[in-house]
Amino acid sequence: MNNKQYIGRQSISFTNGPYIHAYASIVGKKEGEGPLGKYFTKIVEDDFFGQNTWEEAESALQGETVKLLLNRSGVSPSDIRYAFAGDLLGQLMATSFGLAEYNIPLFGIYGACSTMGEALSLASMTIAGGYADRVLALASSHFASAEKTFRFPLGYGSQRKFCATWTVTGCGAILLDSSSGSARVTGITTGRITDYGLKEKDNMGACMAPAAADTIYNHLSDFGRAPDYYDKIITGDLGYVGQTILIDILKTKGYDISNVHMDCGIEIFDINTQDTNAGGSGCGCSASTLCSYILNQIEKRAWKRILFVPTGALLSPVSANEGQTVPGIAHGVVIEAV
Amino acid sequence: MNNKQYIGRQSISFTNGPYIHAYASIVGKKEGEGPLGKYFTKIVEDDFFGQNTWEEAESALQGETVKLLLNRSGVSPSDIRYAFAGDLLGQLMATSFGLAEYNIPLFGIYGACSTMGEALSLASMTIAGGYADRVLALASSHFASAEKTFRFPLGYGSQRKFCATWTVTGCGAILLDSSSGSARVTGITTGRITDYGLKEKDNMGACMAPAAADTIYNHLSDFGRAPDYYDKIITGDLGYVGQTILIDILKTKGYDISNVHMDCGIEIFDINTQDTNAGGSGCGCSASTLCSYILNQIEKRAWKRILFVPTGALLSPVSANEGQTVPGIAHGVVIEAV
């Protein structure tokens, strides 16, 4: 059965890639007020999602997003063979409590803000490998649970650096299917831990840009493609600072992506009116932007193919306090209109 | 290419399962003094592994174990297409800093103490699906980094309940290969989040036993096998309390596994002399026992086939402090002598 599907150093080209059968996203009030507001499946005004703690709120956000996805697709949880899911909290707390009710065999994953790329990659490999007909891929983040984990309690009212990003309250979920849907995953490029030695945890765009550059560079060279092969090359949450660095690094490696690059963190908030400094972040940023604006553009064939490359800062509150660097990782997924 | 390989509700039977080409384990001094001491590849006396913090120590433990594995197998990092790896620390800190130097495309995973089962499952799917010829599967834990995260700083000298387990300082790493080795992975059963509502974080064996029972029950019924089909059914770190509960639950469901059950947490320490109460735990417990005693028994054909079922308590320090339950998950992997 080992008909080899891999190409180059770190990519897979699917001979029979899975379909994106349905998708759904839920975001918070601030994200709903941003430029992409009309594309989200649901906007929830109550940041607590009816719960008592921020962690329970993020679990409820995940659970609700899956419920929306099931309603949209008409599929029941027992028809879904596996879930690949994760979040930013220690020990994947939001996932452990958010998905329990669905009883779907679970592979918990952690790729920081690249998690939706990792989930889509593994879910696609699972279906294309003949291991399942339907697989769920999901990632979430919540502004308040992330601020509490990685920065300062909100009550402190700490000032934020201009290079800092704003964690998105959002969840995106995709149901991949072996036989029908409006788009297909046709390839992936899996990232490596990339560490340029930066230690500034408030400047995650700069910390993650080298990882995005590494994955995009290897993707283009593994597949022998030029940047303009894609309608868009879409990073997750580099923000304005990280975008500049990414484009600069890739130029030195011979690729100019400036005409096709887009960053979910830049798109999801209005920098002029929403006070979000360098842009949005969190694994819910790229996941909710994918499961709204991006897949909508593909569905209506405004874009025929994109490279989705969410980026993660492999940062823990403990590692940062112990003076460690902030390595990055980025996972690339090719999505094409059907 | 969708030649379906899945069977039953949550299992895969590999038509061409990957080989265990090489394995290695490193443990700390206390584990080295236990009953399995002679089987580990290396025992390190210095719990800091030459580093300055417990987290750096666990990263060094991972990095060293991979180095041993590479030496044993004669393979270079660039020959390994993917790594599936994880640990117990928030945001997979030990993995992010422990594996960076090898530059292997990484899928970070989190299944609490079931992580080695999750890593082996995904690595096997990856090779059997034709996506790679060589994949690394790895998990680690460290007594001091885990105590600091989940319990009390060691300096407090807190007393431990009799039902509590002792986190193993250990790492196990396996190199899976598409064509040669002394054992094969022939099937997997992926676990679901199982929550009986227990909140006693010091009694993780009781919290995880229902998940182990669910996975073992579904495994046996998916494959249509009786418990004595296996020479051993091996859980990860249920300890003495969890073992009793597991055997009882499965008896009520019609399976008596008492003659073939073994638990890594019970085997790795001597309850009479090592003061470890209910047994060993941590994802390094099952990973290091697998990559020493267990694979050695299979290699010399003392056991022809086993079901390896590490169990995880989906516990975070925050969720425990917020009064949440402790759900469990368990991932089953069938390993057969060649």
Structure, described:
- 2 copies of one chain form a homodimer.
- Chain A has 10 helices and 17 strands.
- In chain A, about 65% of the residues are buried.
- Chain A starts with 5 loop residues before the first strand and ends with a strand.
- In chain A, strands 1, 2, 3, 4, 5, 6, 7, 9, 10, 11, 12, 14 and 17 form a 13-stranded mixed β-sheet that branches. A two-stranded parallel sheet of chain A has the order 8-13.
- The model of chain A has no long low-confidence stretch (mean pLDDT about 95).
- Helices cover about 35% and strands about 25% of the residues of chain A.
- Chain A is globular.
- Chain A has helices at about 30, 55-75, 95-100, 115-130, 145-150, 205-225, 240-250, 265-270, 285-300, 315-320; strands at about 5, 10-15, 20-30, 40-45, 80-85, 105-110, 135-140, 165, 170-175, 185-190, 230-235, 260-265, 280, 305-310, 310-315, 330, 330-335.
- With about 350 residues, chain A is an alpha/beta fold.
- Chain A has 2 domains: about 20-175, Peroxisomal Thiolase, Chain A, domain 1, CATH 3.40.47; about 185-335, Stage V sporulation protein AD (Peroxisomal Thiolase, Chain A, domain 1, 3-Layer(aba) Sandwich).
- In chain A, α3 links the parallel β5 (about 80-85) and β6 (about 105-110).
- The longest helix of chain A has 20 residues, at about 55-75.
- At the A-B interface, α3, β6, α4 and α10 of A face α3, β6, α4 and α10 of B.
